Every structure is written in C-alpha cells, then in structure tokens.
Amino acid sequence: xxxxxxxxxxxxxxxxxxxxxxxxxxxxxxxxxxxxxxxxxxxxxxxxxxxxxxxxxxxxxxxxxxxxxxxxxxxxxxxxxxxxxxxxxxxxxxxxxxxxxxxxxxxxxxxxxxxxxxxxxxxxxxxxxxxxxxxxxxxxxxxxxxxxxxxxxxxxxxxxxxxxxxxxxxxxxxxxxxxxxxxxxxxxxxxxxxxxxxxxxxxxxxxxxxxxxxxxxxxxxxxxxxxxxxxxxxxxxxxxxxxxxxxxxxxxxxxxxxxxxxxxxxxxxxxxxxxxxxxxxxxxxxxxxxxxxxxxxxxxxxxxxxxxxxxxxxxxxxxxxxxxxxxxxxxxxxxxxxxxxxxxxxxxxxxxxxxxxxxxxxxxxxxxxxxxxxxxxxxxxxxxxxxxxxxxxxxxxxxxxxxxxxxxxxxxxxxxxxxxxxxxxxxxxxxxxxxxxxxxxxxxxxxxxxxxxxxxxxxxxxxxxxxxxxxxxxxxxxxxxxxxxxxxxxxxxxxxxxxxxxxxxxxxxxxxxxxxxxxxxxxxxxxxxxxxxxxxxxxxxxxxxxxxxxxxxxxxxxxxxxxxxxxxxxxxxxxxxxxxxxxxxxxxxxxxxxxxxxxxxxxxxxxxxxxxxxxxxxxxxxxxxxxxxxxxxxxxxxxxxxxxxxxxxxxxxxxxxxxxxxxxxxxxxxxxxxxxxxxxxxxxxxxxxxxxxxxxxxxxxxxxxxxxxxxxxxxxxxxxxxxxxx
Length: 726
What we know:
Number of helices: 22
Largest sheet: 6 strands, mixed
Number of strands: 29
C-alpha cells in the first residue's frame, strides 16, 4: 500500500457530485462500523453533547478509559468550556468541521491540543456526529515555543541591540532546533503510518483503496486477496469494474440510490476469481493522496443475509396467505402478528389488530374467559389444543380448532405464544350429519332393523333371521346354515382374522365385537358391524348369540370426511396437513429399515403472471393440470401434495439422490410439455424444483424441507425451469 493521506471529510470522491458550498449530507453511523479497525482516534457524539462510543485510540488521546468516556459530556473535556457550544451548534446545523484545533483537559489537568474533524449523521436513531481526533500537542508546543523565541528575539533586538552576527547565529541555532523537531515529527508520522498499515493488513474486513477517477485498485489488504481469490499483485493491476458484475447503468443507478439515501453504503454484485457471484455492501469514503483523489472502501459479504431476508419474506407471504388463522401474542397480551385469514375473520384492518391488546381486539369477555387462561398455560411451556366457536363480523358462527404453542427464544425463555386456528366449521357440519345418521341407525335398531344370529357349538349350526338374510342378500335356500357357509360371504382379507377372533371369544367366553366386509352376490362390498355374547345354560350346549348391522353408509361417510380432511379441494392432491402426517410416517419407516428417501419442493414459475394475464379461473386450470401431470409421472407410492398457492411437495420413498434428480427432471420436462387450453388461449408454463434427501438418523422433516426450499430458491435464482439439489 502506498503512503496514504489523512481522510478529508466532505471532499469529493469519485462518486460525489455535489457543490462544495452545499451542506454535506449526513452519514449513517451504524453499529456495524468497527471503530477499533479504523486508524486514529474516533468518537461517536450525540448532538445532545454526550459521548456515545469512543475507540481505544481516542480514549488514550483523552487520557481516560472507554468506559469513563461513554455517556460523558464532551464539554467536560474542553479546557475552556465556552469553546464547545459553537462547535455543537455548527454540527446541529448539519455542517462538517475540518482541522479544528481544540484544547482538551487531560487527566493530569494539563493542556492537550488535538486536531478535530467531525461529520454529522445519525446513530441508533438519534442525531449524532462522527469525530476523528489527532494529537498535535507537541506540534502546538513547538509552534508556541517558536513564537515565543521569535518574540524574545525581536525584543532583544529592539531593547539590547544585539550584534547582527550573534542574532544570525541564534536564528541558525533555532533553525537547527526546528529541523530536529521536524525530524522528530516525521519519525512520529512514519511510526503512526506503520501502525495504520498494520491495522489495514491485519483487519479481517475486506478493504480496497481505489482511484476515484479511473476505478483502478491502488491497494488491497490480505483479507481482500483471500475473499476475491486473487493475489495482492493481481488485485493492484485490476480495476473495480473487473470485479463488479453490474452493468455501468446498474452501477450508476445504485450510486444514485445511495446518494438519495444520504448514506455511504452501496449494494453491488462482485465476481470472485472462481466465477462465483456474491452480493456485497460497500462502505466508501474519499481520501486525498497528493494530487490524487482516492476512495477507501470496506466490503461486507451479505449474500447469506440477503438469502435469509428473501426466505423470511417468503415465509411471511406463506403465513399471510395460509387459510389458517395465525396470530402472535407477547407476554403483555399484545397481538404482534396477524395474517390475512385472521384479519378477514375479525373483519378489521391490520392497524386495529396488530400491536393492540387482545382484550381490545376480541372483547373483554372473550379475552378473559376463552383466551387468557390458555395463553397463560402456553407461557408456562404447555402446548394447548382446544375447540372454540366465534361469531364473525358478518354475524356467522365459526368453529375453530385452536393450538396455543409457546415460542422460545435463543436462551429458552418464552416471550411469545403463537395461536393457530383452523376453520373446522365444515367438519363440524359433517360430524353433525354423522351424529344424525347414528341416531337414525339407533332408531332403526330399535325398530328391528338389525340381523340376529345364533351359533350352536354342539352341532355347528348357525341360525339367521330375516334381517340377516337381507343384510347378506341371500335366502334360506342359498344359505346352508353352517359356519363355513357364513364364512363364504366374508371378504377374503377378513376371513381368517374374523374366524380367529370368533373362536377365541367363544373359547374364553368373552364378548365378541368386530367389523368386517361381506360380498353380495352382485359383487358389491358392504361393511358389517357384529357383536355377540357367549351363553352357557344348564342342560344346554354353549352358544354365541349376536347381531349384525350394515355400517356401509357410515364408513363411506367417514371415508368421505377423511378425504375432505386430507385432500386439496381445488386440485385433488393431498393437502399440507395430510402431507406432513404421511411424510413423518415415511421418514420413520426410512430410518427403521435404512432405506433412502427424497423430497421434491416445486413451484410454478411466474404463476402470478398467469393469473394476471388470463385470470384466476385459468390459473386454477393450470394448478389442476399440474397435479394431473405430476400424478401421471410419479409412482403410486410417492406422496404428492399441494402445500399452498402454487407450491407443491413430493415425498419419494426408497429413492436416492440420483433417482430423485432423474425423477425431478422427468417432472420438469413433462410440465414444460403440458398445455392448458382456455378458450382460444393455450397456456404454457414451467416449474422449478428443489431436491433434498434424508441425511442420517438425526435428520428431521423440517430440515429436509428447508434444504429442498433452499434448492428451489436457487433454481429460481438461476433462471427458473430447472432442478437444483441441496
């Protein structure tokens, strides 16, 4: 690194275009600034006059510890306190201070002269200024001594008429002394520069020194060499344009945005020697080196942070769009988050719900009786599930299945409780219908609508009444009245389990209770419920007397309800709840038998454009067509589900990474070839797929899904209509 000049705050860098006569823009003084990594004494001063932060070099110059300086009024350090208000007034007006000589009071109550530069800005949301200070006490004393000596010389010449030659010798001696002082100052400067060079080279932050006009890299520290993958010699032969992957127009737009924000940080995409593109945040400032204007830049890699922010945004969108009602409550019972479904159910805008007391949002009675008791249990670490009924803003009753789940922070304390409420109104209606059906069945039983049978152990005969004949769609001519003839009507899969259970109950004289399938003569399968008791009476053989009744309608209704609860109503695919249950089962099975398992996370590319162009009905057609293509492409053993919106997932049991990647490619190609005909329009669409596989015994479903989502995001980022793996 070539010799650097002091930073000249307010001077033009290669990206500054403002008039010098204007008030310089405020800088953003962020916590991310590492004051200890920046040469010289630095102070962050609130414009109230209090010191916020001081680095160690500044504390040494002021003769105090960093802890003593934190919160101290700067005016307490001025030797003459009246010098401070004018400086503070200029900073409050947004003016920068340059090369101000200020006399501070050292701990030994001695004068301590410092040169001060300051630039106003904002720190932690409060008006502040960044002050840089340099020790000029020795220079000041030398200057004062020179002034005093010269004054004495003039007085001596004036009053004592010293011989001219003696005066010349005195001046020469003084010049020698000054030369010696200058040599000492130069030595001190070189020592300071050596310290600055050490800080520059040893810093873990990536640092570059650029020509403000040409963009040439004049110097770089070892951290920059390690980060970019070039040697220091290579870097100093390059320009910043060879690293910055933005186009000149994009670069200019980003600089304009930074200037509008009045910040010294800008966001770019930098290309490493390996070809990898990384997102970076660059903090820059101008420095002067002789007649050359340079820019000092500190580069921070924010690629992972940006990805995390985008993933967080995606999660927020998922939460906002899920049909379940979601809220987050803190320990003061304030509602800190509410999704769209929650707001819709309440019929209130977000400003009347978020950051408001739950008592105000839901009413005092409901809060105290229905909400607070369960919140308190959750704050004590208990997961609470209950059902509740609320009246919506349109005066309709909504049945909810509510889960109160404690949310722990990093240290394990519970600061929030998440409330997730699923609308089970439709399920309750079906349950009510099922209840009515059960009541009707009971009435039918009371009226004799059940079949009664008797099995005689002595001769093996079985007697059936008329209802039994009706239940089995037979008659006395066709039914032989034996145990084996009865078993002939039973479904093949149920014969042996039913025979074994009957024999066991008969021998042990325990109640018999079973459900099995029978096959009617026309091939129709019916579900029959059976119950019986064993009777032994004196003088009579052991007998089993029981009843049968047809429960086919009930079972079909239960199956329908099960289908409704596990199936996405729009596409017919498994819904998220069903997917999570079955995925956990498949992962447990994979771990138990040591078989591989893969997960595909897929998303329709630019689906919003389809809806905006053709309308939501066509968008629904695209979703249904996608499900059809995926079902035709995947195996029957694969679990394919709609997770929400245009997002889908598939669990592939007994599938390794290579097979999963091949399956994902087949899916992608099949979807790319699919066409949805909507009237006169033909809609083509594509998908992006992320692939992940189960990794060992300790791997979990949420980790598996996060990896697949990360791979999906990368597929989106790399151009869509592609498969990526994680």
